[in-house]
Design brief:
The structure is a single chain. The chain is mainly β. It contains 3 helices and 17 strands.
């Protein structure tokens, strides 16, 4: 299957204007119908460059008595170079990657026939890696950690956009897996206007140092580019890695 033939589809989305984001988890949005709603914001980070008051956003609607908020903020439109949709729902990348792994979309990972999700690992067994891929018992398993990436400077996507002690811990734990296992850091570039990737040294220089150290010790990096539209997500290939 060619990468351009593969898509992850969104449910029908509703358009609106971002009025306010507050308490990390909430966003007030005026829908195109003029109704003002409060949507769940599933991204607890600073959302650098993609949380723009007055900007165009898209939300999903799932009425369910068990949900406190029936609306979820899914996409933001940004204008860094050209108008671009950016995925802001941090739960989506893992769903997309699982679907992509099932479709064998990443030849860099080689052959595998088993996909395990949320596997405990690390020195204290309290961390969970997003995916473990297994196949030929003569070959080492592949541990894949996924990081949602939305911050850009020009054509370059950067991660992280804030200090992430959790992300630093993940890099240390991936390093500890090598050489008994393959360790892969997959950066999910959740917008289609970037063809380069680099660590966000400004906000978190320690993360950048650890990433370079991890690569030197055998951790593999896949900076994966995705085109995002209101209809869905399409894989574009790898971004150029700049260290």
């Amino acid at each position: 299957m060619a990468s351009g033939d593969w898509h992850y589809l969104y449910p029908p989305l509703l358009g609106g204007t971002l009025l306010k984001r507050y308490k990390r988890f909430f966003a007030d949005i005026e829908l195109d119908t003029d109704e003002v709603i409060t949507a769940h914001c599933p991204n607890t980070g600073p959302m650098t460059g993609v949380c723009n008051l007055g900007g165009r956003v898209l939300v999903s609607h799932k009425p369910d008595p068990k949900r406190k908020l029936p609306y979820t903020w899914e996409l933001s439109e940004v204008h860094d170079t050209v108008p671009t949709w950016v995925g802001v729902n941090t739960a989506v990348p893992n769903r997309v990657i699982k679907s992509a792994l099932e479709a064998r979309l990443f030849p860099e990972l080689g052959a595998y026939d088993q996909i395990l999700s949320e596997v405990c690992y690390g020195s204290d067994r309290k961390s969970r890696v997003d995916f473990v891929l297994k196949g030929d018992p003569q070959q080492p398993p592949i541990y894949v950690e996924v990081k949602n990436t939305t911050w850009v400077q020009g054509p370059r996507a950067l991660f992280p956009d804030t200090v992430t002690t959790r992300g630093q811990k993940h890099l240390r734990e991936l390093m500890a897996l090598v050489p008994e296992a393959r360790a892969v850091m997959l950066y999910f570039i959740n917008r289609g206007d970037c063809d380069e990737f680099a660590p966000g040294d400004g906000p978190d220089p320690e993360y950048g140092r650890l990433l370079r150290d991890a690569i030197a010790k055998g951790v593999e990096v896949l900076p994966c580019r995705f085109a995002v539209t209101p209809q869905g997500i399409r894989y574009l290939g790898l971004a150029a890695l700049h260290l």
